[in-house]
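G., the chain you wanted modeled:
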Amino acid sequence: MKIPILRAQETIEAAPADPETARRLKIPVLYPVMHMTRIMYTTGNRPFELVDIYYRADKYHYSVNMVRVKRGGRWTWTTEVETSA
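Predicted structure as tokens:
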């Protein structure tokens, strides 16, 4: 069965590592990490999948290329996201 994924909402924030995250990433407690959550939605705007992940701040980067485009007579941004781990 194919489930259509129509959109996703992703949030990335800096956070200090809690004891469990620090243990799993082999870093000191309170070491800076990148915390990413993503919720993917299917038809009817129903949540389908939740991703909740932590990245070591010294091993990961997040970069967004933004390009201005004109759509329907209005200027807006398009984005290209680049990550590494």
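The chain is about 10% helix and 65% strand.

Shout if anything looks off.
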